[in-house]
Amino acid sequence: MDDETFRAWAHRAADWSVDYLAGVGERPVRAQVAPGEIFRQLPAAPPTEGEPMERIFSDLDRVVMPGMTHWQHPRFFAYFPANASPPSMVAEFVTAALAAQCMLWQTSPAATELETRVMDWLRQMIGLPEGFSGVIQDSASGATLAALLTARERALGFTGNAKGLAGGPVLRVYASAQVHSSVDKAVRIAGFGDANLVRIPVSGPLHGMDPDALDAAIRADREAGLTPAAIVACLGGTSIGACDPLEAVAAVARRHDVFFHVDAAWAGSAMICPEFRDLMRGAEAADSLVFNPHKWLFTHFDCSAHFVRDPKALTDTLGIRPPFLRTLGQDGFVDYNEWSIPLGRRFRALKLWFVIRSYGVEALRGMIRDHVAWARELAGIIAADPDFELTTAPILSLFTFRYAPAGADDLDALNARLVERINDDGRTYLTQTRHDGRFVIRFQVGQTTTTRADVMTAWAAVREIAAGLRAG
Ligand code: PLP
Description:
Bound molecules: pyridoxal-5'-phosphate
GO molecular function: carboxy-lyase activity; pyridoxal phosphate binding
Number of helices: 15
Distance between the termini: 56 Å
Family: Belongs to the group II decarboxylase family.
Mean pLDDT: 96
Order of helices and strands: HHHHEHHEHEEEHEHEEHEHHHEEHEEH
Strand order of the largest sheet: 1-9-8-7-6-2-3
Cofactor: pyridoxal 5'-phosphate
Pfam family, one: Pyridoxal_deC
Keywords: Decarboxylase, Lyase, Pyridoxal phosphate
């Protein structure tokens, strides 16, 4: 492709993107295709000769788009958001043009130094004290794995990498059942073994882990000759937004000298609003904390902010310096590949820099405050509706509910059908979870372009579909 053709297609892609986002609210939120429908339209063999871009681009609309679920739809209330924004997209375009591999300081000094700077901006924005260093990871899962590997090495006096784990002590990790499955996965990959993830019971309105039960579990393990290695707390668990009492958990971690990691993947973004920071009190005592600007800070996936108190512990765990990565005379600068599991790294800091500068902190706060306010308002409406039950109160912008009309039996099955019908209908998109043994429907507000009217339109659609379900 020559320069002028590239220019024309880059403009066309920009126009397509603006038009797509302007009209995305008219599309069904969740893809409405059957399994295999897209695959069957794709030729089994690759083209031998190049095809005209015009044809490729028209196949984007004809073949691909019907199979897309629209995460940037203003009535996307499923899972957690993967929200984004125009400044982030512009930065992603530039990042794609640069196509830089930012694994070492030398392979793009600006990428490393911008990352250090914007991570410190983020640290200030969420109210973490000085003394934390930040790195952008590909995902919260990757950050939590890096944290648990560090915890493992710390518990083993940094000998696990050298000698392996065989014949070593049994290492234990403590978390409530409200943490995301990325913790289970990290426990497995880091070699702790599923059986050594100790579940601590939760209580209270925030469904947080009981610090006394945590303390007792650690004492019992020590007495049994096991080695407590890490506590993982959640600040905004995936299912219902559970928040562990970080201050009390931190005190237990300190008492027993156990590594303390906080997964704030979703809720961390809301900590830019000082009024929500009660939830994070105690996080300043953590060894590491992760949150995802790619969830709720208007920055494209992938962008996971990982803060660590002791970067040397992380680089002693993950850093490997083969001769082919030496940067003669420049070794020893921050080489972020040593902070992460993959070697290769995209220039992820650029989009954060664009977003934070373009909006400013106050506007970012305003959007998150709106989301929380609208979620609370709708939760109040649902609590007052005799046909519905608010099953968990809002934690920030997430709550759960279920349809419970008088006389209905098997509410689990009824609500499962309701979710299916809502998502087939397409006006909004909701997903489910289980809480206290019951099937409940999650509702979270966090999309960039969502308005209060979108929240209320979604609710009207849910009520209408629920009424039809009973009638039919
Ligand atoms: N932690 C929490 C609380 C989450 O909700 C999620 C994803 O929704 C994750 C971790 C995993 O995030 P990622 O996709 O960045 O690995």
